[in-house]
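[Meeting: bench + compute handoff]

Bench side (C.D.) handed over the final construct sequence. Compute side (W.E.) agreed to return the predicted structure before the next meeting so the bench team could plan truncations. Sequence as handed over:
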Amino acid sequence: MNLENERSTFQASLIACGAALASVLVMAAQGNGLQPNVPARPLAEFLLPLQTQPQAMLRFFTADSLLVLSYAVIFVGLFLIAARHSLWLARFGLGFGLVGAVLDAVENAHFITYASLASAGEIVAEPALALMAVIGNLKWMGAFAALLAFGLLWPRASKLDWVLKLLMLAFPIIGVLGVAAPELVPVRGLFFLFGFPLFAWRFWREIH
């Protein structure tokens, strides 16, 4: 890829960071408990937001859909930097990241369908609880694998690079520990809150 194409990709990734951060803030503003599938919940807990907040769920997953599109573009920007050190491992990271994005979109499609029906007065009596939990966990595993690969390859040329490297390596470790310790699951969201502005700063430096 020539320098002009790389610059255009980094510009797109920078814009995507802004969209992703805005999406996360909108999702946070809608409240907690609107995506009750990871960790898996009992049926009554899964149905509660559908019964009480279907419109909030639709707003939440509108923002989440924009987040999926945004972080897919961000992964491409991360890939360009990581590929300077190992093309094959960077491809591994990008592949898992994009698979995770597809699974995230599938997960969102289920919730959007359930929330749309609930908003129209029809609650799905038997939602696919196990399937939703599996899709959600696989989505996260895709993100963990992607950022582990990018973190291992990330340069150490500046303090910013060191912070990003440590952040990307910590994310999959904390994420996997969350399987056995569900109280760690909310910490995943903090990564995005801090990560997107830092990624944006890194992409800006590539452009300039």
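W.E. noted at the follow-up: The chain has a mean pLDDT of 94. C.D. will use this when planning the next construct.
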